[in-house]
Amino acid sequence: MGHNAFAALRALILACAVLAAGAAGAASPYDGAMTTLVMEYKASPANRAALRAHMLAEGLPELERWRREGRVREYKVLFSRYVDNRAWDMLTLIQFADGAQAARWKEIEQAQPAGLAQKALALVHSVDSNPADRWFAGGHSKDNGVYLVIPYDYLVSTEKYLDYLAGYLLPQLGGWLDDGALASYGVYLGRYAVDRHWSALLVLEYDGEAGIAARERTTQKVRAKLAASNPQWLAWSENKAQVRTTRQYVLADELRLP
Fold this sequence. Notes:
Layout: H1 3-21, E1 36-43, H2 48-68, E2 74-80, E3 90-95, H3 99-103, H4 105-111, H5 118-121, E4 124-139, E5 146-154, H6 158-179, E6 182-190, E7 200-206, H7 208-213, H8 215-229, H9 231-239, E8 244-246, E9 250-255
Antiparallel strand pairs: 1-3, 1-4, 2-3, 2-9, 4-6, 5-7, 5-8, 5-9, 6-7
C-alpha cells in the first residue's frame, strides 16, 4: 500500500473512530471530553459467586434504569471465567453520549462508588477506574458471546499508536469478522494512562464457544493472508514489539438481563 493510499485509509479510520466514540463533529475523540469509563473490580474467591448473583439480581437492573433515565448511553458487564489473583473478577464498560453526560457520573459516584450499592461494595476489595474513549468498534454483539479482553501499554505517541492500529490491528479485526469467529470488537484508549496497568484495551467478542475455539486458526489464517498481500501490515508486524507491550488476557462472559 502506497503512502497516499495509507494516508487516505488512516483518515477514513479516524472518521470511523468519531462515530465509534459518539463525538459527532469532532476530528477525534480527544477533541471533546472522555466518553467511556472502564471499571475493574477484584473480589476474593469466596465473594465471586455473591458478586455475580448481586449483579444479576440488582446491579444490571439498576444500570438499565440509568440507561433509560439518560444517565448513561450504554453499558456492558463482563465476569471473568476463572479465579486469578492477577486479573479482575468483573469489568464494567460505561459508554456516555457526550462529555456532559460523563460529567454527571460523579453524582452516581458520590452515592454509589464505582456504581455499586453498599452490599456489592462489601464484596469487592479493590476497584480500578480508567477514564477512556472507544476509538474503534465493529461487528454485532451476540447473545452467546465469549469475550477475550486484552490490555496493552503503548510505548509511542498516541498519533503513532493510531497509525499502528490502522496499519496492523484493524486489518486483522476486519479479517476475523469476515471469517465469522469474531462477532464484535471495541478498541479503547485511556485518557490518563500514566502509571495505570493499561493505556489501550482491546475487547474481543467471539461467536460462542465455537468462535473462541477457532481463535488461533482464524488469527493465523488472517495474518498469513495479510503478510502475503499487505507490505504495510507486514512492516508493522515485524516491529510491533517496539510499539506496545501486552498484559494478561482475561477470558470472560457478559452478564445480561433475562
